[in-house]
Design goal:
Layout: E1 6-12, H1 22-33, E2 36-42, H2 49-54, E3 57-61, H3 63-67, H4 71-80, E4 84-89, H5 93-100, H6 108-122, E5 127-130, H7 133-141, E6 150-152, H8 159-163, E7 175-179, H9 188-201, E8 206-210, H10 220-229, E9 236-240, H11 246-249, E10 254-257, H12 266-273, E11 277-281, H13 286-290, E12 295-297, H14 302-310, H15 319-332, H16 335-368
Parallel strand pairs: 1-2, 1-3, 3-4, 4-5, 5-6, 7-8, 7-10, 8-9, 10-11, 11-12
Length: 373
Amino acid sequence: MSAPSTEIAVVTECQPGRGTLTSFWFAAPILREQNVKLSFCFTYKIKDTRRILFCRRIVFDGAAALRTGFGPGWYLLGIILRKQLAVYWHETEWGIDAARQVPQRLSAWKWVKTYLVRQALRNRSVHHFQVCQHGCNILVDRYGVSKDSVSLLNNCSNSERALAHPYESAPKPGLFVAVGRLQPRKGVDLFLDIAQKVAAERPESRFVWIGAFTDAPYSEEHLKARVQERQLDQNVTFAGFMDDPLTVMSEAEAVLLTSRDDPFPKVLQEALAVGRSCVAFDVGGAREILDDLGETVPVGDVDAFARCLTDPSRRAQDGATQRRRRERYQALYSKDAFATRFLEVLGSWDRQAQRGQDSEDAADRSETTVPKG
């Protein structure tokens, strides 16, 4: 006889298999084998409200799930119906502060959405999953969340796609690759500063950024102009969006992370999968991901970053190290690893819910006790 199934509603603004949804989305078939069914509720689909009504547990997948579409209403419904609620934070200070900031042009609905993010952080019945240890620490130290209400839950990437690429191939010397949607926190200006310093010592170097263009100053036209201003036309390319950036990443001498904020970057995970060396600013969980298989430097220190790319002693790519990178990815950042972690933290979530129920029961008993006269 099989064990009873546990059904959990996962509220997300993302489309299947993309963005912050990926960890839950790719792990769902594995979790189903362990009798944990994930029911995805997309914030712009009103019909998914029925899943909210019938699931005892609800996970809001990132701050955006609390702020977009029907997400705010579903959170309030969960409070009213006394559901077991959790938020899976993909954000650290940068993202959480932005989500809880009162907008300058205040409307009633914007105020409600901001309030709900703040309420979720204060509500002792809500459990908090975080993608990195740094994020766990700031939830406790910066936002006052109880340590017992926080669980580390590293995310994962599309491991089937990542592991389909080779990891033992020789890199192309001087090819440096960054991946990410072009936006302020990704440190595009720092990427250009680093490229300029490295190109002065290694004129043959090529820096490629793979990621969707956005509005100015991150449009294709604006970025081309910035490259020309620095006379880096032969060294820097903004390639735009690619379905599978791993094809280029797997050829790189090093994969770069120039972000000012990046909680648990999948690009570093996937760089390990294809055996590539990595250099990253020490943001979020970058050091957690790389351990001794890559290099981190202080945030914004472009000189130290450039030295990592110009020092000949740091260019070695031996097969044993490449294999260790691949093995680390398989052990920690595959969909199987995420499913295992999620099953483990479900226990913490249940224990918190039980403590809350015990406290409510004790309060009810004290209210109904009639003192002896």
